[in-house]
Amino acid sequence: MKHKRITIRDNYAEAxxxxxxxxxxxxxxxVTFGVLLLNMYHLQVVEHQQFQTRSNDNRIKVVPLAPNRGxxxxxxxxxxxxxxxxxxxxxxxxxxxxxxxTLARLQQLLEFDASxxxxxxxxxxxxxxxxxxxLLDRLTEQQAARxxxxxxxxPGVSIEARLVRHYPYGEAITHALGYVAKINRTDLNKLxxxxxxxxxxxxxxxGKLGVERFYEEQLHGSIGxxxxxxxxxGRNIRTLSxxxxxxxxxxxxxxxxxxxxxxxxxxxxxxxxxxxxxxRDGAILAMVSKPSYDPNWFAQGISYAQYQSLLNSTHSPLLxxxxxxxxxxxxxxxxxxxxxxxxxxxxxxxxxIWDPGWFMIEGVDHRYRDWLAWGHGWVNxxxxxxxxxxxxxxxxxxxxxxNVIHDDMVRYGFGERxxxxxxxxxxxVMPSPGxxxxxxxxxxxxxxxxxxxxxxxxxxxxxxxxxxxxSVLANRGERPVPRLLESIAEGPVRIPxxxxxxxxxxxxxxxxxxxxxxxxxxxxxxxxxxxxRAFQGASYTSAGKTGTAQVxxxxxxxxxxxxxxxxxxxxxxxYVGYAPAENPEVVVVIAVENAGGGSSIAAPMAxxxxxxxxxxxxxxxxxxxxxxxLEEPADAN
Amino acid sequence: xxTSQERQRHKWLSRFHIDGPLFLALLVLALLSLVTxxxxxxxxxxxxxxxxxxxxxxxVAMLVVAQVPLSLVERWSLPIFxxxxxxxxxxxxxxxxxxxxxxxxxxxxxxxxxxxxxxLAVPMAVAWFIAQQGLPPTKTRLxxxxxxxxxxxxxxxxxxxxxxxxxIASAGIxxxxxxxxxxxxITLFGVAIGAFIPVLWFFLxxxxxxxxxxxxxxxxxxxLGSGYQIxxxxxxxxxxxxxxxxxxQGTQSQLEFLPERHTDFIFSVFSEEFGLIGVIxxxxxxxxxxFRGMILAMRAQKVYHKLLAGSLTLTFFVYVLxxxxxxxxxxxxxxxxxxxxxxxxxxxxTLMTGFGLLMAIATHKRLxxxx
Lengths: 637, 371
Hints:
The structure holds two protein chains of two kinds. In chain A, strands 2, 3, 4, 5, 12, 20 and 21 form a seven-stranded mixed β-sheet that branches. In chain A, strands 14-13-25-24-23 form a five-stranded antiparallel β-sheet, with helices on both faces. A three-stranded antiparallel β-sheet of chain A has the order 1-9-10. Chain A is built from 23 helices and 25 strands. Chain A has two domains: about 190 residues, Penicillin-binding protein 2a (Domain 2) (Alpha-Beta Complex); about 350 residues, DD-peptidase/beta-lactamase superfamily (Beta-lactamase), CATH 3.40.710.10. Chain B has a domain of about 250 residues. Chain B contains 14 helices and three strands. In chain B, helix 5 packs parallel to helix 14 and helix 6 runs antiparallel to helix 7. Chains A and B meet through helix 1 and helix 2 of A and helix 7, helix 10, helix 12 and helix 13 of B. Chain A: It is a single-pass membrane protein.
């Protein structure tokens, strides 16, 4: 009985004890859930905003969208630079089961080098597995077709189109138009400095030269953005929003692609520069520099070997001869010097000198020879220009002195940049005693002034400077700034380029313009004119001046014989001119390196070019004038 | 007053040893699990179907266990525990490695995880041992019980599986607590554990376990490494806000920023998609299950039944606490799934077997009928 009672009491006590412990437990449970809930409240309510932001940062990626680059047209609407879709064969490694086997089959199908596969593996390592990697860029249509037909055999392999800058005229316009190429570190640093790096986030290429470089800002456009939702591997899930890029503006150039191509072909195998420019507003119709190269190499990604070959070529194809080439102007500046002498009252339109075929500075035993060994006899200023008499210029140059010549020639733009709308431009050299002192730490010698009289010595000009200086003559004083740009398209509206003029050359006696003009006209028309044969039978009037620049000084008793001296020491042939003579609307400048005389080489080229300009269907001079020239004395200036 | 229909139903339920309220709550939880697993798996139907099968199996296990006579369970407590120890020994000697720990034992026909058996065997054995005497237990019996729970705890910790070993230890300790272990001893025990922590840290913990704790203390110190999980989990929870992003709309989980999203971190998915409102609902559901379990434990008449039911319920609560605490950044990351919601079969079957025992206890014929 007793035992039983104890058991019952124990049962009761046990139940009570257990209940107390359960009560404590549940209290702990409630408190704990309270703590958990408080924490949840903290995360989901108090700090919700912060976590919301971080969640969005996780999933939303902003993908920059590159704007399409503006198209460049010539004055007649021909496309000079465009964006062409290029087909490339791309592989998404993630979607390919057996990569090596697929590559082997593709190689068999498309017949490419093993190096292509090596390059592919190289690129693939840098990319994420689900990104497309380019195997072949620039697929031929045939290759693309072969893959397309067997597309089902190649999962993960696709043909993609990308836009690549294309220059349909190739090497003919390279130096004026320039090119785009991959943005490199230097470009990136520059963009960063200018605060433009963000705008280029999606852009792969940038203008490196010529118009493409100068008008980069207009051509590039503004970047767009796409908000995409990505998963943890960065794979695009869906597009949330798009702010489309603003395409670059189209440019219309003053260039006439047909004239440009004509001028380019005209130079043939020769090196040199040709410029056609409207003297009234500086509009450049053609600007050729030869040798050239295909800008598409750069736009599509130039190989190291290709670039080295351009860089190391003895003929410097990368140089823009029209604006960077420093040519001795030779006789092409004789009209300018004549005006200076007239203005300085050193000569009058009628004063004459006797040319025995050479010139000597008093007291110095050195003969400065005229190109015509037996001399021109009595010559006045007009004769001196028409026949290109050197002795006359030796004389007046010495009388004017280097400082007068320098100060006056600077007014025509010699020795300074013309301000053309490309960055590649040299100021060339309009020498002065001060310049020589600074450059060589040597005094100026009178003999150098004599040589300056025929555009030699230290004097160099770019063909573009000659175009400007010749325009000043054609305009009777007004000095245009050369300009490639005609207008910029802004939507349907074309905003014309700003036409600039530099300070005009004002003469004391305006009639002196006419003296020069008439002399330059007679170069074409006079029986003794150095460009007479070249312009025989032209359907238009024109004025001009030939020039033959020595690139090596000839010994005192040496005869210049083109046949006997190395090509690189042969004379440069020069020509400057404008047409029509009465109302000039086009200036032509020709510089042909190591080609021979201005009269025999450069003037006929100018003729053909002007013929083309004035739309003679096939330049009439053609074969006849070439034959006629062959009979001319080789070294007529 | 009960209507005749209700009485009818009640009778039917008790005949199959089912506690209605508990069963209903578990069913709702299972449905929540399916809904969340479907979303967390990236709407993977095959995976969701596997979860359906597992839940089905787990419920079957629960119902089967509920039918087992309790006297049988009580008698088998020690033998099951002994078998568990042998199997644990087998794991330590011949176990199969997975994720750097030996937890599995290949018995030829099936691969089993003996630590899962121990989750039930330890409270059963400890409860049985305590129930041999009246409550509160004597100091000697307490010491014996401690030995009983310490052996498997250390063996599992050696695998190493710190999370499970702590859960198993707590299951045993809950028995002792409910049995009326004196507060003085509890305090002493707490102090001892406090003193044990440095020992644990320097001698018993593995590098990755220490890393987990360090990361837990400051997840941002290694945002791409071991802190990544917890940061992404907190972002998921926090960005869910009050109303949540909506079912299948959780960007953290759908876009896979959240690791282990259908297993250990499923609560983060749930919180992201259903927000604080959903979380409160889930807490209420868990709270209800725990309260119901404790009520059933109180109603039980035999000491063994009371202790076992109470311990199983409190262990279930600890699962919930550890998982939610871990994914919300209150506790270090230990591999504990959210009970009955996380994707995965083993723990679900174990838990439901436990609930089967609970139901058996709840529907056991009472010695004294009160009503």
